[in-house]
Structure formats: structure tokens, C-alpha cells
Design goal:
246 residues, Rossmann fold, seven-stranded parallel beta sheet, 8 helices, 7 strands, globular
Length: 246
């Protein structure tokens, strides 16, 4: 699929999502940035996209709720008459010991990390089908994509991201006849958290064969590749600097 003049909807536009949005605009796409709480970042990215000569909308929505997802997609279709690309980046990532993990913690991870991707895909699929096809890109995690947990304290997170891999494979089969390709990206050490200590930073670099953080642009490159492909579907691609083979 040629990205030029296509319409992309991105959920979760904080930090990495904003970079992905701008990169798609650089390649000629109009972009809708769905955000929940990060309004300033979404608006800033939208403004940058407009300076590139492309259309952009920043729309608030809690994509873990079906009514808000339907409203979001309806607004996009009303504005652009189409959705060609869906990038499901909305996610939460928090550590908590298993014994202290609550039902609310579990539900939060499942709702934001997994259910939102299902709801958004279900909402855009008929629109994509009507326009001859599309691309759906979900976001898993390099650990979940590797098939086994590595760190304690992330039970709901790990299970939700493993679910994203399963959802991606299932949707790829379900939607293939409509020419909707569904894939996932599983990021590794891309962007250092703001509260990371120097010691923790050294540990990450040491554990990553390439010896460095990837940077947001590496995720954008992967998104572009999965949009442009016409024959890859049902895959989960790790963008982790070789971390999974260490």
C-alpha cells in the first residue's frame, strides 16, 4: 500500500506515537491522533503535521470503551470518508508485585492494552473493507513476542501483550479475504523512561546486543514497512536491537 494520500488513525499518541504520526505525514498521509490524557502532545504533533501540508486531527477518546471508539471512528469517517491504516498504540505499563495486584490492575491492563485494539479493529474493518482493504498494526512487547516472561511484577501486562499477539494472528485470518493485513510490532529498548537511573541504563545497554536504545524513529520505520507491504500478515515483528537473542 502506498502511504501517500491515505488516512491513518493512531491511538496512544504520547511520545513514540507522535513520532510515528509525523513520519506518516512526511510520507503523505493525513493523520488522526487519538489520545486519552495527553492532549498537549497530540495537539503539538497535529500542528507539526499541518506544517507538512497534511491534514491532522487530535481527538480525545478512551479507546477501552466501545461507545467512545465508535464515536472516534465515526468522526474520522465523517471528516475523511475513509480509514486506511489503524495503529493501535494505546497502552499502560506498570509494575506491581503479584500479591498486590488487584482486579482493577488486571482489568486496566486488559482494557487498555488488549480490548482497545479489538474494539478499534472491529470499528474500522467495515470502513476498510468498503474501500478495498487496509492495514491494522497492533503493539505487543518483545518479551511477549518471545513467548516467555522475563521479569517479575508484570503479570497483567505480560498476559495482555501476549493476548495482542493472539489477537493479531486471529484478525489476520479473519480479515484476509477483505484485503486487510494485520500485523504487530513488539518494541524492546526504544526510549528510556524519564526516571531511569544511570545504572539501569547501563544494564539495558549491556543486555541489548546492539548496545544502545533504538529511538522512536525505529518504530516509525517498522510501521511504515508494515503499511507498505502487500503480502505480510499475521506477523509480530520484534524491534528490540537483538534483545531477544541475548
Amino acid at each position: 500500500m502506498d502511504i501517500k494520500d491515505k488516512v491513518a488513525l493512531i491511538t496512544g499518541t504520547r511520545r513514540i506515537g507522535s513520532v510515528v504520526a509525523v513520519e506518516l505525514a512526511r510520507r503523505g498521509a493525513d493523520v488522526v491522533l487519538g489520545y486519552n490524557r495527553s492532549r498537549e502532545e497530540a495537539e503539538a504533533a497535529a500542528m507539526q503535521i499541518r506544517t507538512l501540508g497534511r491534514k491532522a486531527l487530535a481527538i480525545q477518546a478512551d479507546v477501552s470503551k466501545v461507545s467512545e471508539v465508535q464515536s472516534l471512528v465515526s468522526r474520522v469517517v465523517g471528516e475523511f470518508s475513509r480509514v486506511d491504516v489503524l495503529v493501535n498504540m494505546a497502552s499502560i505499563y506498570r509494575s506491581k508485585p503479584f500479591g498486590e495486584t488487584t482486579e482493577q490492575d488486571w482489568n486496566g491492563n486488559m482494557d487498555v492494552n488488549l480490548k482497545s485494539a479489538f474494539l478499534c479493529a472491529q470499528a474500522v474493518a467495515p470502513v476498510m473493507k468498503a474501500n478495498g482493504g487496509g492495514r491494522i498494526i497492533n503493539f505487543a512487547d518483545w518479551i511477549a513476542a518471545s513467548g516467555r516472561p522475563r521479569y517479575k511484577g508484570y503479570v497483567p501486562y505480560y498476559v495482555s501483550k501476549a493476548g495482542v499477539v493472539g489477537l493479531t494472528e486471529s484478525l489476520a485470518l479473519e480479515l484476509a479475504s477483505d484485503q486487510i493485513l494485520v500485523n504487530a510490532i513488539a518494541p524492546g529498548p526504544i526510549l528510556a523512561p524519564p526516571d531511569l537511573t544511570e545504572e539501569e541504563d547501563r544494564e539495558v545497554r549491556k543486555a541489548t546486543p546492539l548496545g544502545r536504545w533504538g529511538g522512536e524513529i525505529e518504530i516509525a520505520k517498522a510501521v511504515v514497512s508494515l503499511i507498505e507491504t502487500d503480502f505480510i500478515t499475521g506477523e509480530c515483528i520484534r524491534v528490540d536491537g537483538g534483545r531477544h537473542v541475548h
